[in-house]
Design a protein that fits this description.
The protein contains three helices and two strands. By secondary structure, the chain is mainly alpha-helical. The longest helix has 20 residues.
Length: 92
Amino acid sequence: MPVKGQLKSTASARSKYQRKYNSQPEQKKRRAARNKARAAALKSGRVKKGDGKDIDHKDFNPKNNSKGNTRVLAKSKNRARNQHARNRKRGS
């Protein structure tokens, strides 16, 4: 059994890549900002735990948690919107 912080010997290349990517300082900051936005929406009563909703940042900047920049969307709609934006960015 691997020690905490180590990968299993059977881990796929994708999971190794994800672990390395998600442990980068910039990604940790972005994740913390998203969690902060979710906590603020939870506190204000706009979302509930386990409701299947995401907090969407209108300008795609998770550091901008102003009330005017965030909205509640269904998880599938928000992630489809974000995927569309990534594909559009790659194509240009």
